[in-house]
Write a structure and sequence with these properties.
This protein is α+β, with helices and mostly antiparallel strands. It is built from 13 helices and 16 strands. The chain has three domains: 125 residues, no CATH class; 91 residues, no CATH class; 122 residues, Nucleotidyltransferase, domain 5. The longest helix has 17 residues. This is Reverse transcriptase domain-containing protein.
């Protein structure tokens, strides 16, 4: 369930060094007005309020059914976390644990912020499906999803930005805000997000900045991820400790071609480079790092359909083994004549998601 604080910032009185920034003068009345509470809209207000929000969570986490009801033998502490003024409770439905946990949250809010701080209208009921932190959570299926309306909004913003040559800092902020959850569900998308964030930092507060060729390509990748990335029903196990691989793929590359080996099924792929690709290598435009990653692309394209899970509620976790550490860490920058090949190499994550496969786990078995 989720609890909310009513008029959160108004309950917190700011320091004099902060209040002076939000003072006003009424010349007609010969008066000065000073807002002693944290003002809504000031970027520093959430950080100041976080101290009190953390105090509420601290009080909840130190309570248990036995501390609130001495006759109850359950001494396991409650679990609570906060996001600004939203407090989220996650508990097992056992005996009266849910009711006592809600009671602990209400008492903590009253103790920290006073009797008028509880927002009854925004207290939700206990449910196995809930929306928190901008994501949809399902505790029965143990999955997390990006809401459909948020995916549609992100697609519209990305499409709008792709049609422009000059963009404002506000437009970049809106796109980054819509894409932040994509990086949570598909972690290999972070390099694309980071390049857009770097462009946002360079943008002036007033005026516009030109979209770079790399930024346009990153937006194209995000558009593909949003359309085909299967951003709903992501198993929560991928967000915890490293998981054992369901499938291991060995891959390698050379100046002649690329190869991939599927030991469990005794399958292999060999692709020989043509003259055009050899010319790119001679010009330094098709590095060994990109060639190594192309092995994984071929593996997903050729075997992806056969590696799909038997259950529709889960994903297949594939681990790619490679002997080149620099290929694992490499981040292609800029645009070259082999940008399509780089795009294919960087498309591994959402190609896997399109086949209902898990996130790629590329490991080194040695070092060149």
């Amino acid at each position: 369930m989720r609890g909310d604080v009513k008029w959160a910032f108004k309950h917190v009185h700011a320091h004099s060094s902060v209040c002076v920034k939000f003072a006003g003068v009424l010349p007609e009345e010969n008066a000065v007005a000073i807002d002693l509470a944290l003002p809504f809209g000031w970027t520093g207000s959430p950080a100041h309020y976080a101290v009190f929000g953390s105090a509420i969570s601290f009080l909840v986490r130190r309570e248990s059914p036995s501390s609130l009801c001495p006759a109850d033998p359950d001494a396991s502490p409650f679990f609570c976390f906060e996001w600004v003024d939203d407090h989220v409770l996650i508990e097992e439905d056992a005996a009266n644990r849910l009711e006592l946990c809600e009671c602990a949250l209400r008492l903590a809010i009253l103790a920290v912020l006073g009797p008028r701080a509880v927002n009854e209208k925004k207290f939700t009921c206990w449910s196995t499906q809930s929306r928190a932190l901008g994501l949809d959570w399902d505790t029965e299926r143990r999955t997390v999803s990006i809401p459909e309306d948020e995916i549609d909004k992100a697609l519209r913003r990305v499409a709008t930005l792709r049609r422009k040559l000059l963009v404002t800092r506000t437009e970049l902020s809106e796109v980054l805000g819509s894409l932040r959850h994509v990086c949570s569900c598909i972690r290999p998308a972070k390099p694309f997000f980071q390049r857009l964030a770097a462009l946002h930092r360079k943008a002036p507060r007033l005026g516009k900045i030109r979209l770079s060729a790399a930024a346009i390509l990153d937006l194209e990748r995000f558009d593909h991820i949003l359309r085909h990335g299967r951003l709903r029903g992501m198993p929560l196990r991928y967000f915890s400790e490293p998981q054992a691989a369901d499938v291991n793929i060995l891959m390698d590359a050379s100046d002649l071609g690329v190869c991939a080996l599927h030991p469990a099924r005794k399958l292999y792929i060999q692709v020989q480079f043509d003259e055009a690709e050899k010319l790119l290598m001679a010009q330094g435009l098709l590095s060994i790092n990109v060639r190594e990653q192309l092995s994984a692309v071929w593996a997903v394209l050729c075997w992806g359909h056969d590696l799909r899970p038997t259950s529709g509620d889960d994903l297949t976790h594939i681990k790619f083994w490679i002997d080149n550490r620099s290929a694992v860490r490499s981040k292609p920058s800029g645009i070259s004549v082999c940008q399509h090949i780089i795009y294919q190499a960087r498309s591994i994550p959402w190609r896997m998601r399109a086949h209902e496969l898990g996130m790629p786990d590329i490991r080194t078995g040695g070092a060149n």
